[in-house]
Specification:
heterodimer, A: alpha/beta, 5-stranded mixed sheet, two-stranded antiparallel sheet, B: alpha/beta, 3 strands, 42% helix
Chain lengths: 170, 90
């Protein structure tokens, strides 16, 4: 495979400011706090021996799990645990802030669990994690996300022996 | 806002000792937030892994994300995936 180029970052700051202006018009008091320290855990093992998990904020959950709350103006910082053997037809999307018509037809557009299984079967990765997470990313107040959800997810993924976590927004 | 939430949780999971990577359709948010590793893709919201019913495309994107997880060399790097959204043209 050819080398991937780094993204040109020129103009991104201005684009970000425009986005932030729009969001603040819609949600007064919206606070955007960058990650102060960007952490770094280099991969310890080759991919072919790694256990891979998915974490999505695209509003994915099992049909028999509680739907995400789209009524709260502060959003919903909760999460849904998804087992590694979950079937795609057991999953659905609750998220009103992006067009999930494609994900409704094929959940792999946002939660590529079948693709992770295929890469494991092909030997490109070691194995599928027994645990994955679905969240709904419309969360205006990051405090509960940072204080409760993120620490729980991190601990649970470590306990599940995950080497690599792939994150997908909606 | 999904991108902001993804990046906050991603950084936390990385801090716990797991290698993480995110795909982003809104690199201006990912860039300003700062995440361990990311790959930008010029796809619409709702299609971070590609089109419905296109398993080969989705698998290729996932492979590229895993390659970024393995090969990025410093925190904050955002790589550009070479895909363009074609569905509207066809």
């Amino acid at each position: 495979m050819a080398e991937l180029p780094l993204l040109q970052t020129e103009g991104l700051q201005q684009k970000f400011e425009r986005w932030l202006g729009v969001v603040r018009d819609l949600h007064h008091g919206f606070a955007f706090q960058p990650n102060g320290t960007v952490h770094w855990t280099p991969l310890r093992n080759p991919l072919k021996s790694c256990r891979v998990a998915l974490v999505t904020t695209a509003g994915v959950h099992r049909k028999d799990q509680l739907r995400f709350n789209m009524e709260d103006p502060h959003g919903d910082p909760s999460f849904r645990e998804l087992r590694g053997d979950v079937r795609c037809n057991e999953l659905m999307v609750t998220h009103d802030h992006y067009n999930h018509a494609d994900a409704d037809r094929d959940i792999n557009c946002v939660f590529p669990i079948d693709r992770v299984r295929e890469l494991a079967a092909a030997g490109e990765i070691g194995e599928v994690s027994p645990l994955h997470f679905g969240m709904m990313g419309f969360i205006t107040d990051p405090a509960p996300l940072l204080e409760r959800t993120a620490p729980y997810l991190a601990q649970a993924l470590v306990a599940a022996g995950v080497d690599v976590a792939v994150f997908t927004p909606g | 806002m999904c991108h902001r939430s993804v990046g906050l949780v991603q950084n936390h999971v990385e801090s716990a000792g797991i290698t993480t990577v995110c795909v982003t359709m809104r690199p201006e948010i990912t860039f300003t937030l700062g995440v361990p590793r990311a790959a930008a893709i010029r796809f619409p919201l709702g299609n971070p892994m590609g089109e419905a019913g296109k398993p080969e495309q989705q698998r290729m994107i996932l492979s590229e994300l895993l390659r970024v997880a393995a090969e990025a060399t410093e925190p904050g790097q955002i790589f550009e995936l070479p895909y363009r959204w074609r569905r509207m043209e066809g």
